[in-house]
Amino acid sequence: MKNTHLTSVAVGAIMASGVASTALADGHATELTLCWAAWDPANALVELSKDFEAMSGHKMNFEFVPWTSFADRMLNELNSGGQLCDLMIGDSQWIGGGAENGHYVKLNDFFDANGIDMGDFIPATVTGYAEWPKNTPNYYALPAFGDVVGWTYRKDWFERPELQEEFKSTYGYDLGVPETLQQLTDIAQFFQGRDIDGTTVYGAAIYTERGSEGITMGVTNWLYNHGFLYENPDKPYDLDGFVNSADAAAGLEAYKALYDTATPPGSSNWYMGENIDAYRSGQVAMQMNFAFIWPGVEADEKVGGGKSGYFPNPAGPSGQFAQLGGQGISVVAYSEKQDAALEYIQWFAQPEIQSRWWELGGYSALSAVVEDPSFVQSQPYAQTFLDSMAIVKDFWAEPAYADLLIPMQERIHNYVIAGEGTAQEALDGLVRDWTEVFEDEGKL
Amino acid sequence: MTASPIQKMAEKTPPGMARNIKGLSDRTIAWIFVAPTIFLLLAVNIFPLIWTIRLSFTNYRVNRPNKDVDWVGLRNYERILNDPDIWNTMQATAHFLLWTIALQVLIGFALAYLINKKFKGNDLWTTIIVFPMMLSPAVVGNFWTFLYQPQIGLFNYVIAFFTGADPASFSMIGDVHLAPWAIIIADTWMWTPFVMLICLAGLRSIPDSIYEAAECDRASKWRQFWTITIPMALPFLMLAVLFRGIENFKMFDLVVQLTGGGPGNTTTLTSIDLKREAFEKWRTGYSSAYAVILFVTVFGLASIYVKALNKVKER
Q1: Which CATH number goes with the domain that contains B184?
Q2: According to Swiss-Prot or TrEMBL, what is its membrane topology (chain B) (predicted)?
């Protein structure tokens, strides 16, 4: 039996190398470089791409950059017309710039010619990762990795009878998955400074990072649910009264209240990595983070294997929304290997490859994968992922996305973390900053 | 008469070249030698400076190469000088500068004074004290980030030991009131040895004979310190202040590693702010004006200071 396996593997390897050699000899094979962030899903993609290498004969190289410098590094690469990347898994907010500045190849004809239908993907991911302008059938990417901000909590702590009893007597309702942001704050405050098994623990790890996009990705989960809108729905780029409405200011105040009362000391500049560390080390009862971390949580010895639970961002007074993460995969217009890059996208879009992508820890955006009856049972977080993807909202995806993000980071961080001014002043300032950007862009 | 080596060398010069060189003045030859260096300096120092000054009067943004560049006159300068955020940044820089220099000079001089006394293990202690300045600022930044951790940081535990406070009850780099002190402490830890070395050089340059004469005049140690040690070491102290002042005015790496300029803008020094304007917001014209203002400030202050230093040396 063992020998048969070995023989199969050897034959497979010889065939694969044969195909590769033939392709190389034909001159069709090439080396493709795929650029993405350095994180767990990227490792899964490396594994997945081995199938593509064996099938096509092309060699895959990868350029992975840590999240905190990912946007800087890759946007500079695109803005300078660099040829480092043939394929780019760029952040959802880059799609406008990618399309309007000619960085990404428009994929409509390619999709039509190869039977790739955007209707087969989760609608929110198509709008978020592939379309520009939004809600028009102009595609510059294939949804590659569905992601959304959600919550992880210590199920084992929540289920302790003595804590449940104390919580109910204090707050008047059961300790469990929070349904509203207020409940989440109550629970976080309940755990803040509590002694659990001889260790002082804290309420929640939330996004507070200033340098890249951290605090924006966190605070929007509060702002959206309190009534914040990016613009007047009837008049594009009309910001006043929507960005800085009284409801939005209340949402910002609520986020600051959570930071002030229920987060670990010293968490003034935390993003994905710090939140993961705090949660895994047993410092916090809950953590805000993108869904990509959930496979890692489940596999973790200390907090995985049933000790953790997952829930979507809870509702606020004005609805239930969650910040969209995730990315689409695009062909870089400056690449000289666009044909091979398109081959990769064609291969990646296949349902069986998307299924394998999910198995390896990548969040497929293909409806056939996530709507499969077995999907919900496949992982403890699968249902939460689906629920969360149904309530997503995204940051501006304008070409001036980076110029819009910087003032938001600054205004929000200065208010929430440093306590400068009021929530209303912070949002009023943001309206001024964004108005200036849109004026510079000629959109106002 | 035998020919000198220079004459021998001259005789070996190929006739063609000799014909070309013949007639060149010493001054011309000197220019030929100096020209490459001058050219290099112009290319890498003077030209960028002039270009920066030129850009400071425009609305140029390097990330929008296709957009028209307009001449905006003094608008960038006006906006910078009227921007309260920039004045806050200047204030944060001044606070950082004054306190780091004061602490480093005080502690550095005290250490130099002690090390200058001959005792057993003198060299070993000097090496140990000098160790922090041998480290990279990025390493020191990371190292102090861990020391300042509220849950596990040694610094918090030491403070807690002496004050009885809960170590997790305060965050040196997360608190707006403590963060400016956090960067001052880390910088002082790292650069006090540098000041100490300069002061030590100053103290060792004072001839023993002066102290011996003072002893003969029955001057007390205290009087010797104030009338001999301090005045004679003063030029060295002033030099140390100049070096640390210039270095800390452009402080970037250590602070970025420690606090990233936060929380809020409390530790955003001018160099960090300038970098954000130039390479995150890509406001090239605006940041050029900002750089010119900083350049003029540092250059002006340094010139005044150097004049004062020269006067002290002449005394």
Answers
A1: 1.10.3720.10
A2: Multi-pass membrane protein
Write the single-letter amino acid at A324: L
CB–CB of A77/A116 below 8 Å? no
- Rounded CA separation A22/A19 (Å): 5
Rounded distance between C-alpha atoms, residue B69 and residue B61, angstroms: 8
Interface test with B, best of A79, A216, A268 (most B CBs within 10 A): A268
On whether any CB of chain B is under 8 Å from the CB of A424, the answer is no
Comparing CB atoms, the residue among A211, A266, A417 nearest residue B149 is A266
Using an 8 Å CB-CB cutoff, list residues of chain B that contact chain A: 63, 148-151, 168-171, 173-176, 259-266, 276, 280-282
Fold annotation for A28-148+325-393: D-Maltodextrin-Binding Protein; domain 2 (3.40.190)
B303 in the same domain as B157: yes
Q: Let me know if residue B189 belongs to a domain.
A: yes
> What pLDDT was estimated at residue B2?
62
Which residues have a Cβ under 8 Å from the Cβ of A85 and sit 6 or more positions away?
A33, A34, A35, A63, A74, A77, A332, A335
If one looks up domain A149-323+400-440 in CATH, what number appears? 3.40.190.10
The 10 Å Cβ neighbour count of residue B195 is 29
Residue B148: closest C-alpha in chain A: A266
What are the helix (H) ranges across chain B?
Answer: 5-12, 15-21, 26-41, 47-55, 75-81, 84-116, 122-130, 137-147, 154-163, 179-204, 208-216, 221-224, 230-249, 253-258, 270-279, 284-314
| Mean local confidence (pLDDT), A339-345 | 96
CA distances from A68 to A133, A228, A278, B40, B267 (A): 27, 26, 18, 36, 20
Residues B200 and B114: their CA atoms lie apart, in Å, by 9
User: Tell me: the pLDDT tens digits for A233-288?
Assistant: 999 999 999 999 999 999 999 999 999 999 999 899 999 999 999 999 999 999 99
Provide the pairing of β-strand A322-323 with A284-290.
unpaired
Q: What is the pLDDT of residue B51?
A: 95
| Mean of all residue pLDDT scores within chain A | 91
* pLDDT at position A10 over 70: no
- Cis peptide, bond prior to residue A133, ω within 30 of zero: yes
Side-by-side strand order, sheet with A308-312: A194-196, A199-205, A284-290, A149-154, A308-312
